[in-house]
Amino acid sequence: MGKVMGLTVFVDDRIMLTLVFLGKFYEMFHMDADIGVQVLQLSYMKGHVAHAGFPEISYGPMADKLVRAGYKLSLIHI
Q1: Which of 1, 19, 55, 63 matches a 20 to 30 Å C-alpha distance to 37?
Q2: CA atoms of 1 and 58, how far apart (whole Å)
């Protein structure tokens, strides 16, 4: 699998976070992971880059918290 590179995208002056769906988890990388840790109280996963995620079943409440915190979301299903 290739590297996931950080990318900050703004839409209507709001940061768009990228959630990557891998297996049964939504995962965030780099700055998006930092925001996930702060807003969602996630823990960083082990590795060389900032990486955090949550299980598929938690998508609704987690997405709601991020949107209420002022972020837009983009989803990538691999």
Answers
A1: 1
A2: 25
Helices 59-68 and 31-40, axial angle in degrees (round to 10): 100
pLDDT, one tens digit for every residue, the chain (78 residues): 444 445 567 777 788 999 999 999 999 999 999 999 999 999 999 988 889 999 999 999 999 999 999 999 999 998
Any idea how long the chain is?
A: 78
Q: Rg for the chain (alpha carbons), in Å?
A: 12
Output the pTM of the full model: 0.83
List Cα–Cα distances, 64 to 2, 5, 50, 56, in angstroms.
29, 25, 22, 14
